[in-house]
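Ops channel
N.P.: pipeline sanity check, posting one input/output pair.
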């Protein structure tokens, strides 16, 4: 009988398994692109062993426990299952053989999921919870047997949480944490700029969440607790650096507009609107002059199209547009 190692190498040699693991890592990274996806599809189609190794690398990635249960879907051409005719026992053996490599990938990635400028992504975690990341966002996933913990490092994310009463879902942001069981809520973290101070916000879409100090237990409180704020659907709790928290009820259409590719402004300063546009692209929209930055803006605009927005503002307020490479400047007319 052929030795097991020889079997594994014949079906998916080490070099192929290593390449598959690299593809899986890159597809989960911040530099994912249409070009990368095309290269992966081409590599998978080139050899049936590639398809098997890619599937097994994905399974090993999943087994790390802190990473998405599924790769974000490639377009048509990516096999749902390996088509090499590999038997389940042999496939399991190959999967075991690359678990160590997957562990290296996990620690190198620090359990992080990220998006770059102009990129949005929805991923499913191992428990079925969906995380939708806005542009320029990063979360770190740290699941264990007791609690499902995610840290919002930067940016904005919407969480659709799978209910599990014995294993609370916790999102850490700044010096607070959000406790949920089965619910939908959004968390946003701002690093601070001239237009908007540093801080973070928690918006409850549906269900029930508690916003607590980091030292509080990882559980929804059954009775009121000092320092803990329980939100009702539609409420937003905001924290700004050096300012006490504020509670309001914003328009859900407005705060979730980014998921539809829109930005909605309602009596927003032009400086704040420009800062919001700058989250979604490599080009920058700059406001020249403090008085111009205070102009009020309203309307619905497309994400990633600062040129049209700048033109609309120039027409409305008789401003001048200056193009400086990847920078669009709005200034007073001469």
């Amino acid at each position: 009988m052929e030795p097991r190692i020889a079997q594994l190498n014949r079906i998916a040699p080490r070099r192929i398994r290593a390449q598959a693991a690299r593809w899986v890592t890159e597809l989960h990274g911040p530099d994912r692109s249409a070009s990368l996806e095309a290269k992966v599809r081409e590599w998978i189609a080139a050899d049936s062993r590639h398809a098997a190794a890619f599937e097994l690398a994905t399974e090993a990635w999943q087994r790390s426990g802190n990473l998405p249960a599924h790769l974000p879907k490639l377009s048509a051409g990516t096999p749902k299952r390996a088509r090499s005719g590999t038997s389940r026992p042999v496939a399991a053996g190959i999967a075991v053989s690359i678990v160590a490599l997957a562990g290296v990938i996990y620690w190198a990635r620090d359990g992080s999921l990220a998006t770059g400028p102009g990129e949005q992504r929805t991923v499913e975690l191992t428990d079925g919870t969906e995380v939708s990341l806005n542009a320029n966002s990063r979360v770190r996933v740290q699941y264990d047997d007791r609690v499902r913990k995610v840290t919002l490092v930067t940016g904005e994310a919407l969480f659709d949480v799978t209910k599990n009463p014995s294993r609370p879902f916790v999102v850490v942001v700044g010096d607070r944490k959000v406790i949920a069981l089965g619910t939908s809520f959004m968390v946003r973290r701002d690093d601070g700029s001239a237009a908007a101070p540093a801080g973070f916000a928690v918006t409850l879409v549906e269900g029930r969440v508690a916003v607590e100090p980091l030292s509080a237990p990882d559980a929804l409180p059954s009775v009121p607790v000092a320092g803990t704020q329980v939100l009702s659907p539609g409420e937003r709790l905001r924290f700004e650096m050096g300012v006490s928290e504020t509670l309001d009820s914003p328009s859900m259409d407005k705060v979730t507009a980014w998921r539809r590719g829109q930005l909605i402004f309602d009596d927003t300063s032009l400086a704040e609107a420009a800062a919001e546009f700058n989250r979604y692209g490599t080009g920058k929209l700059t406001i020249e002059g403090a008085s111009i930055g205070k102009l009020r803006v309203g309307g619905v605009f497309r994400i990633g199209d600062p040129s049209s927005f700048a033109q609309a503002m120039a027409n409305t307020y008789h401003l001048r547009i200056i193009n400086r490479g990847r920078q669009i400047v709005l200034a007073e007319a001469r």
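N.P.: looks fine end to end. Confidence is low (pLDDT under 50) at residues 1-9, 69-73, 75-109.
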